[in-house]
Amino acid sequence: MSVKILAIESSCDETSASVLADGVILSNYIANQTVHEQYGGVVPELASRAHQENIVPVVDLALHKAGVRKNELSAIAFTQSPGLIGSLLVGSCFAKSMALALNIPLIAVHHMQAHVLANFIGEHKPSFPFLCLTVSGGHTQIVRCDGPLDMKVIGETLDDAAGEAFDKSAKLLGLPYPGGPLIDKYAAEGDPNRFKFPEPQIPGLNFSFSGLKTSILYFLQEQREKDPQFTENNMADICASVQHRIVSILMNKLVKASKETGIREIGIAGGVSANSGLRKALQEYGKKHGWNTYIPKFEYCTDNAAMIAITAWYKYQAGEFAGLDAVPGARAGF
């Protein structure tokens, strides 16, 4: 009998639903929230209200696109943690109610674990052991994977995440939210070696981006004192230089992790893995160091329910189900 799973992702400001059948994604829909743009960041209360409005039509669309009826579902999966607690509550309550009504199992999924397993959607899948650089607005981690459900964080940020460094740098440049994709856009036209920003000297496999953000702030203040139009006249080169430094910090740690573990199966995941500079760097470093590299499709990089579905598929096979007392958490490790 075919195993069909409905997955729901609601950790931040995207409401997403996906349907999977026997490990294959049949549909993946995402409803974005534009209401946050005017505030320069995600407003938690507005996010949870939008999830309440979006979740029923998004789930209906996902089921219709997949050609699957509710009574054909084998399980319901949802993002349990981490994320905005109000947003997580909307998804978890909906999933629990639907699983209870249909009398089928419930599967709780860790958001960051799901980002890693986005690399296992489709035909080109990593072999184990596998290293994944997971980078987003809230997290920066190097994860060692010895199996689809056997993961360990071996390096992480000590302060700010790489995605936050992109967005905060964009804000300093006067770019609208979300600024990370705009830095990527301008960087394509700029000289990455025009301006030099320091690389934090953090021991081990951990990261730090707070010092880099401060150096960018002081650099811009100093240059604007000399030329008030400095930012506008040099936007492409500044963005290219900022992106180059963030990417080099990430890749240098990934090289170190590969050497220390001896693992050459290397991938990236998370929202920042959609950045063209990082994707290009992974491929270049892969050729240089003899890695087999993996990059999820763009639609599986940002928050999406397909990655929840593929994780749920592995958990279903392992018999890892959740009870109706499963509680969402704003912060939680693997």
TrEMBL record:
SUPFAM superfamilies with a match to the protein in the record: Actin-like ATPase domain
Q: Where does substrate bind?
A: 134-138, 167, 180, 184, 275
The record, for Gene3D superfamilies, names:
3.30.420.40
GO CC annotation:
cytoplasm
UniProt cross-references to InterPro entries, sorted A to Z: ATPase_NBD (IPR043129), Gcp-like_dom (IPR000905), KAE1/TsaD (IPR017861), Peptidase_M22_CS (IPR017860), TsaD (IPR022450)
This protein's record includes keyword Transferase:
yes
EC id: 2.3.1.234
Keywords assigned by UniProt?
Acyltransferase, Cytoplasm, Iron, Metal-binding, Transferase, tRNA processing
Q: Which reaction does it catalyse?
A: L-threonylcarbamoyladenylate + adenosine(37) in tRNA = N(6)-L-threonylcarbamoyladenosine(37) in tRNA + AMP + H(+)
Which Pfam families did the record assign? TsaD
What does the cofactor section's free text say about binding?
A: Binds 1 Fe(2+) ion per subunit.
Record-stated family: Belongs to the KAE1 / TsaD family.
The molecule here is called tRNA N6-adenosine threonylcarbamoyltransferase
